[in-house]
Amino acid sequence: MNSPQSRPVTFGVIVGNRDFFPDQLISSGRQEILQVLTELEIKAVILPESATKLGGVETWGDARKCAALFDEHRSEIDGILVSLPNFGDEKGVAETIKLSGLKVPILIQAYPDDLSKFNVANRRDAFCGKISVCNNLYQYGFPFTLTELHTVSPLTDSFRKDVRQFGAVCQVVSGMRRARLGAVGARPNAFNTTRYSEKLLQAFGISVSTIDLSEVFGRAEKVSEGDHRVKERLAAIASYVPTGGIPSPALVKMAKLGIVLDDWMSVYDLDATAIQCWDSLQHNYGVNVCTLMSMMSESLLPSACEVDVAGVASMYALQLASGRPAALVDWNNNYGGDPDKCVLFHCGNWAKSFFGEVKMANAEILATTLGTENTYGTVAGRTPAGPFGYARITTDDRNGRIRAYVGDGEFVPDPLDTFGSRAVVRVENLQKLLRHVCRKGFEHHAAMTTAHAAAALNEAFTTYFDWDTYWHEG
Prior knowledge:
Elements: E1 10-15, H1 24-39, E2 43-46, H2 60-72, E3 79-84, H3 90-100, E4 106-110, H4 126-140, E5 145-146, H5 157-177, E6 180-184, H6 198-202, E7 207-211, H7 213-221, H8 228-240, H9 248-268, E8 272-275, H10 280-284, H11 290-298, E9 303-304, H12 309-322, E10 326-335, E11 338-346, E12 358-362, H13 364-370, E13 376-382, E14 386-396, E15 401-412, E16 421-426, H14 430-439, E17 445-449, H15 454-464, E18 468-472
């Protein structure tokens, strides 16, 4: 199965040059860029200094050499970093990207001039050159990302922040373009909210494989209780979450179900799943699947409730941006009279890293109609204070578009006396966000993670996918 963190991020690096600017600026600029990338554990694919004049790109011949190098490493390159130590050659940069055939995010960095070194020997003019490079990329139809400051030196915290965020953008773009999602069972009949368009997702490279619950149950029943894999899975469950008070037959059912899901995901090389978590599972198999979903999400194979495929796509995008597990939540309750706080809730399938303390329980709400004996397997806990990032992707079938919203907030430690997987969050101007969610017809589900990721997601969704994205900045 795929893992979004299976290898480090790799940038193809273009150092732009223009011959009547000082050569030493290219050598020192190249060295500083590579120093920063090494610090941030980002691999660089860059022309050797001997391949062209100082390893820069200026002429048509330089562009061909750099493009050939990028083509040789196309399976590795997640993004392209264009560095302008001086004005640079706008055409050389654009032609390199065109010849390489790469369709990856592009970051443009330009050096600032030093007012004490405005002489011929040291003047850069990259302030102006960046505008020309961007003009050419726009003409060629290449979307690109800008640093926060128009000109910025590599050896600054500002640029390091730019590079980290751009790395996250690259992870989101490359990961989503080849995402493989699994839909387990049909959506609950009562949930029109989890309907979606496979075709719209596929247009952006997001594939969906399906399996009927009858196949899952049938395969699970054929797994012998004495199978060594059952014992291994029972041990894994016990080491993952305390299971005190949970009947042994329910744990065995979970173990068998987990084996079947693992096998199916492995066959189709799936990155994430959305599962019909009620009520066929409880009626026809007699257990909740929440703990297994939690374990998958903790292992960076996110799993969403209620066959919410667009929801698990949202989880996967957040995970790619943050490198941390994601969860699917309900925007569930107001928090007293505070308009900027609310309660997030689900029966209990959040990854355990969302919790301070955690235990296995039963789904108390579902148990009222399905029976306690059929609903063991939830993960119950409270998320402690910390950063909160959220996102939602939806397929707007009426308009043939994918839309999204993203934002950041905080988990807060305010009192909350309830059950299940739960959290209290604060989002600045939450009421404005909720009005947007309702007016634009978004689902009640959202994805969350324990990091701020809105800026990277917004850049990936808008610049590289052209999705209609609302970034809630308060």
